[in-house]
Amino acid sequence: MIYKNPYYRKVKGSYILLVSCGYCKTDIAKYQKVGKGNLLRMHINRIIKSSIDLSKDQGTLHCPNCGELLATRMTLKRENEDVYKMIRSAFNTRKVHI
Ligand SMILES: [Zn+2]
């Protein structure tokens, strides 16, 4: 993971998930997850670090190693916030510390 996310904002009461490619196991992002349950989408401003340069407007999230599509970007209208909608079964997550 080489890119710091310029939009990152710390969220209280969150924990860190390491998101990796489900095809080749490459680490994709460190993410602040809020609440229980599966990861359905990643809020852009909760991504701490990633293997993808988020300062560029990435319409889709592809694994930098194998090129598989992992997520597509969309705007939540009510919150006026951009998220990556994760493609089910295309990624893995695990809890990490820091
Ligand atoms: Zn991959």
Topology readout:
Elements: E1 3-4, E2 15-21, E3 27-33, E4 41-43, E5 47-50, E6 60-62, E7 69-76, E8 81-86, E9 91-96
Zinc ion (ZN) is lined by residues 21, 23-24, 26, 63, 65-66, 68.
- Number of extended strands: 9
Element pattern in H and E: EEEEEEEEE
End-to-end Cα distance: 14 Å
Going across the biggest sheet, name each strand in turn. 1-5-3-2-9
Which stretches are low in confidence, meaning pLDDT under 50 for 5 or more residues running?
A: none
Beta-strand content estimate = over 45%
Share of helical residues = under 10%
Mean pLDDT: 94
Helix and strand content put the structural class at mainly beta
Number of helices: 0
CATH-derived architecture: Beta Complex
CATH topology: Metal Binding Protein, Guanine Nucleotide Exchange Factor, Chain A
Text of the CATH class: Mainly Beta
* Form type: globular
How many separate domains? 1
Radius of gyration: 12 Å
Describe the structure.
With 98 residues, this protein is mostly beta strands. The chain has one domain (3-96): Metal Binding Protein, Guanine Nucleotide Exchange Factor, Chain A, CATH 2.170.150. 0% of the residues lie in helices and 47% in strands. It contains no helices and nine strands. The chain has strands at 3-4, 15-21, 27-33, 41-43, 47-50, 60-62, 69-76, 81-86, 91-96. It has a five-stranded antiparallel β-sheet with strand order 1-5-3-2-9, with no helix packed on it. The protein starts with a strand and ends with a strand. The relative contact order is 0.29. The model has no long low-confidence stretch (mean pLDDT 94). The chain binds zinc ion. Zinc ion binds next to loops.
